[in-house]
Amino acid sequence: MRSDLLMNFSVDKENKTVNVKREFDAPLSNVWSAWTEPEILDLWWAPAPLKSETKSMEFKEGGRRLYAMVGPEGAQGWSTFDYTSIFPKTNFKYTATFCDAEGNPNSQFGSSFWDVTFSEQGNSTIVDITITRDSFEELEKIIEMGFKQGFTSAMEGLDKILAEK
Amino acid sequence: MKRDIFQAIADPTRRAILVLISSTALTPNAIAEQFQTTRQAVSKHIKILNECDLLEEKKLGREIYYQLKIEKMKEVDEWLEQFKAIWEQRFSQLDQVLLNLKAKENEK
């Protein structure tokens, strides 16, 4: 696997946006599938040891994905993606919201607005992601929380492995 | 007024001031001399940086010297690093998924 793949990461606090750009050593059609088909999306979306489990997904304009990030001990954090616009193999946009298992939004956190663009560059594919929020403080909180949860569950996973030995 | 650190680094002049005072303590006058701007403008930037709790104040005689609280800047780095790390992990997982997809296609 290539190890020189481009990755850009920037935070623009004033515009309340985060931009992430990454090159993938794969044809555009495969990268598009990996982002838009639930079976594939679940394989990589959650940073291990968390798992992504999609309960329902309708990838079309006006459609919704309801999924959970599941920790090694079974703790679940639910979110919805509401797809607002789709240009096949080029771009899609969605609104991401924390929610309960039924998809009822958690009003504590508001939503984030995702804009994901795909382009070909030689034999590789560039994915350019812009995430915008109503307020940056929220974003900080969410990242902090997500990271803590991820870290805690990582430690739990390690405990479990060690206990089994 | 309590400000946060991202307001401090949002402005290019303030970023330059932070670089300037990261290695040595300087007086407001010495800082102002480095920039093509007025003493008042620099004072305003210093005030904001102070409100962000980024400055260490030292009094020597009548002069006030400012130096950067390095550990505060590390907090920003750590926060960004954490966020970046999540994406890096996610993407290296995606790399693996894409590799498997390619392998499957080749089998066909």
Walk me through this protein's architecture.
- The complex is a heterodimer of chains A (165) and B (108).
- Chain A has 165 residues and is α+β, with helices and mostly antiparallel strands.
- Chain A has one domain (7-164): Alpha-D-Glucose-1,6-Bisphosphate, Chain A, domain 4, CATH 3.30.530.
- In chain A, 27% of the residues lie in helices and 42% in strands.
- An 8-stranded antiparallel β-sheet of chain A has the order 1-2-8-7-6-5-4-3.
- In chain A, α1 packs across α2.
- Chain A is globular.
- The two termini of chain A are 32 Å apart.
- Mean pLDDT of chain A is 81; it is low at 147-163.
- Chain B has 2 domains: 5-68, Orthogonal Bundle (Arc Repressor Mutant, subunit A); 70-108.
- Chain B has 5 helices and 2 strands.
- Chain B has helices spanning 5-9, 12-23, 28-33, 39-51, 70-107; strands spanning 55-60, 63-68.
- Chain B has a two-stranded antiparallel ribbon.
- Chain B is elongated, with a radius of gyration of 22 Å.
- Chain A binds chain B through residues 1, 5, 7, 9, 11, 13-14, 18, 20, 22, 24-26, 30-31, 33-34, 40, 43-48, 136-137, 140, 143-144, 146-147, 150, and chain B through 4, 6-7, 9-10, 79-80, 82-84, 86-91, 93-99, 101-102, 105.
Give a brief rundown of this model:
Chain A is of the alpha+beta class.
Rounded to an integer, what's the Rg of chain A over CA atoms?
17 Å
β-strand number of chain A = 8
CATH class of chain A: Alpha Beta
- The CATH superfamily title of the largest domain in chain B: Winged helix-like DNA-binding domain superfamily/Winged helix DNA-binding domain
Task: Please state the second-level CATH architecture of the largest domain in chain B.
Answer: Orthogonal Bundle
- What is the number of helices of chain B? 5
